[in-house]
Amino acid sequence: MKRRDADAIAIPGDYQARALQSPRAAQRFWHAAKIRTLDRLAPPRATSRVADAGCGSGVISAHVAATAREVVGFDSNPAAIEYARSTYASPRLRFVLGPFSEMAREGPFDQIYCLEVLEHLYEQQARETLAFFAQSASPGADLFLTTPNARSAWPFIEWTLDALQLVPTLAEAQHLTLFTHRTLQRAVEASGWQVVDVGAFNGIAPFLAPLSEPLARATERLEARTGLVMPYNLLYCRAQRR
Length: 242
Prior knowledge:
The protein is built from 10 helices and 7 strands. The model has no long low-confidence stretch (mean pLDDT 91). It is of the alpha/beta class.
């Protein structure tokens, strides 16, 4: 089985943190929307032990640690773990360097978040990773995933970002597998999880942010209410441990 244990190019440890403060309004909105979507659909519980799988700079881990009982962030990028450890100090938060197989040693977890990670893996490796999550979860634990939507404008957006060199190279260097609504659901269900809901977000809203942040936020709320899947660029999946 082909494996990818790290991106083919070096990703700065503070990448996700800088994206939230980006001078480019669309990028800033895109990343902030993931946090708002998490809070809307899968908020952390005060009693939960939480894993943030593929934590990167630690932004999501730190956000969740404001509520959850304990949060452990996992990432294989040493620069990211070093940045997260030096930036976010909390007795309820710590970071672990290593592969996702380390999660079983640290578990069980009541909630697992995995935001924009699966696309960095080959498809079979992504399924293996979802199975690692299940092995690390307590009975009835919740899983929340996000990943780019293959049946949206995302492939064109990715091509444009790479062509204009606006972000570290995505195609091949980072992103290996794009999921659809159906293939994501199948992968999750084949890995020991019961899917609760699959949907999508970040349609046109982020691209309205350069014109008007209030307009972009209003559009985001409208997109959330309509519940459409196909046009929106990021898929989400909520699931429970069987």
